[in-house]
Design goal:
This protein is an alpha/beta fold and 151 residues long. It has 6 helices and 5 strands, in the order αβαβαβαβαβα.
């Protein structure tokens, strides 16, 4: 039997539908976001939290450490949104290090044109599954995450 809680929010029908979907599909998936721009981290978190568990980190080093920590506690990270230009290292290095740890489906985010040969190499090496170009439209990003999770 499906139990549904009613929410008193402006978008109550959307929230209610989302609650039903989450309840039917089981536990919520976890998305880790790595970006050195705190404002973007908070925006991503606010946009993703209705549908996903969200972990935020603001450096490449912290991303790798937190991924290892979560893995050791048995918590699976399903998708990693990873900025390419981090303050301490480049996102492709972080993506490949996490891939070596039996990684996660990683989307590399950049405001710049990334070298397509590098992107193709990262995809072939299973370091990333795709890219997202800034500025990001949140509904499109959420659809891309859902598509990745469904494949």
């Amino acid at each position: 039997m499906l139990q549904v809680e009613y929410y008193r929010k402006k978008d109550s029908y959307q929230t209610l539908a989302l609650a039903c979907l989450i309840s039917l599909s089981g536990a919520r998936k976890t998305v880790m976001i790595c970006d050195d721009e705190i404002d973007l981290l908070n925006l991503f978190k606010k946009s993703l939290e209705p549908e996903f568990e969200v972990i935020m980190v603001d450096s490449g080093k912290e991303c790798i450490e937190r991924y290892i920590e979560e893995k050791h506690t048995g918590r699976q990270i399903h998708v990693l949104l990873l900025d390419y230009k981090l303050g301490d290292m480049l996102g492709d290095i972080v993506a490949c290090k996490i891939s070596e740890l039996n990684g996660v489906k990683t989307l590399l985010i950049s405001a710049y044109d990334l070298d397509q040969n590098m992107v193709q190499d990262l995809i072939e090496r299973h370091c990333i599954v795709g890219t997202i170009r800034k500025p990001i439209r949140m509904p499109a990003m959420i659809r891309q995450i859902q598509d990745i999770l469904n494949n």
